[in-house]
Write a structure and sequence with these properties.
Layout: H1 5-15, H2 45-54, E1 57-60, H3 89-102, E2 107-111, H4 119-122, H5 127-132, E3 139-144, H6 151-157, E4 161-167, H7 173-180, H8 188-207, E5 214-220, H9 228-241, E6 244-249, H10 264-274, E7 294-297, E8 305-308, H11 315-324, E9 327-331, E10 338-340, E11 350-351, H12 353-357, H13 361-375
Helix pairs in contact: 11-13
């Protein structure tokens, strides 16, 4: 299958599906078209609606998780929210239907926490997956740590989900445990069982010939999983399974964590020494006045890989965020409502519950517009570390 031309084309297309390039194939600086950089802080009706062609709804189905990763940003929420309630699936579906009906939305992501521990998955209701089949034109994606991403779930989503993201971080148990077990909160025996389940699920997914949809993700931290032996093992495993490797530059949650950051330039040099190939025009140095968040690379016969850099707090990233970032939607503390979180680094919340429950399209779109225009004020510029609760530090 990996040698099939159509399959390789699918791999290439999926690797570039969320990457912005010019028609000539050049990675372009997202600030080149930033309205914020032009001094514009309000969207026209057309500019607002057009955002839905480029951005995605990203639902946190639950803040709860069966791991505790040392790099966890919790998608901007505080760490104590990991004990809060699951999202109401009926609200998730109702909101999605409203946005699909009124905008040119093309993508919806489901994440967490860990989405597969939501009762809709855990109790095998699959209401969300069954609903998704009604919208074949929407690119659905599921982002999971893979532990409960079992054959039944994969069999249900493999045909109508465009992307499956699995946060593996390392194929070596000792390294994986170090990254996913903050302060040894879980006993090693339990962690080994989880890791075994993850590996079994990866093997099953590989047998389904859907590798072009699967992105094997890793957050890179200096001194933990950035050495060339570790990286090569990760890349060789992706090539064996036929998964896209996807690396993320670590973004510190506390200032003391800056020592774990591996620069894009340093990381790309390591990947090149291992055997990765980058495009001729490779903007590996991060220019503080430019924003190029994603870059592709190739490694042996693996599907094309991606390196991602969010850059929260960086001026150029904040000036482009309104146009580039997903529309993050999270459950309220009791799970009975949904809210928008415009800026991941700040605590701003915009409650959507009333608009959804009353079917008020105008109010709902106005709230989404407020969210995006709030980002146009670049509220997160200068954020240095996300200052999560101190008791959860990893330094």
């Amino acid at each position: 299958m990996a040698g099939n031309k159509d399959y390789k084309l699918k791999c290439q297309e999926e690797a570039e599906a969320t990457i912005r390039k010019t028609k000539s194939g050049r990675y372009y600086d997202l600030t080149e078209k930033s309205l914020v950089r032009k001094g514009i802080k309000k969207l026209s009706d057309k500019q607002f609606i057009d955002l839905f062609k480029r951005s995605r709804l990203r639902f946190s189905l639950t803040p709860q998780c069966n791991l505790w990763c040392v790099f966890c940003s919790n998608e901007g929420a505080n760490y104590t929210s990991k004990s809060y309630g699951h999202a109401d699936i009926d609200l998730v579906i109702a909101l999605s239907e409203m946005i699909i009906k009124k905008t040119p939305l093309r993508g919806i992501d489901f994440s967490g926490g860990e989405p597969t521990i939501h009762p809709d998955f855990k109790e095998r209701r699959f209401k969300l997956i069954n609903w998704s089949r009604k919208h074949p034109k929407i690119r659905f994606a599921l982002h999971s740590n893979g532990i409960r991403l079992d054959p039944e779930i994969i069999s249900r989503i493999k045909n109508n989900f465009a992307r499956i993201g699995v946060s593996v971080n390392s194929f070596n148990f000792e390294t994986w445990n170090k990254l996913t077990n903050l302060n040894n909160i879980f006993p090693e025996k339990l962690q080994k069982e989880k890791f075994s389940d993850l590996m079994k699920n990866l093997e099953f997914i590989s047998s389904q010939n859907i590798g072009y949809k699967v992105f094997c993700k890793s957050v890179i931290m200096k001194g933990i999983n950035d050495n060339k032996k570790e990286l090569k093992y990760f890349l060789d495993s992706c090539a064996r399974y036929q998964y896209h490797p996807k690396f993320f530059q670590f973004e510190p949650q506390f200032n003391e964590q800056r020592k774990y950051v591996v620069s894009r330039e340093n990381f790309f040099n390591k990947l090149t020494e291992i055997g990765c190939q980058f495009p001729r025009e490779n903007p590996k140095k991060i220019n503080r006045n430019q924003y190029i968040p994603n870059i592709n690379f190739n490694y042996k016969n693996a599907p094309p890989g991606i390196h991602s850099f969010f850059g929260c707090g960086l001026k150029s990233a904040c000036e482009s965020c309104y146009d580039f970032a997903c529309m993050f939607i999270k459950p309220s503390k009791d799970g009975k409502g949904l809210y928008l979180k415009p800026c991941l680094a700040l605590d701003t919340q915009i409650d959507l519950t009333h608009a959804i429950k009353t079917g008020n399209y105008n109010q709902l779109l106005r709230l989404f517009r407020i969210s995006r225009e709030y980002l146009m004020t670049a509220p997160g510029i200068g954020i240095s570390g996300w200052n999560k609760e101190q008791k959860f530090k990893f330094v």
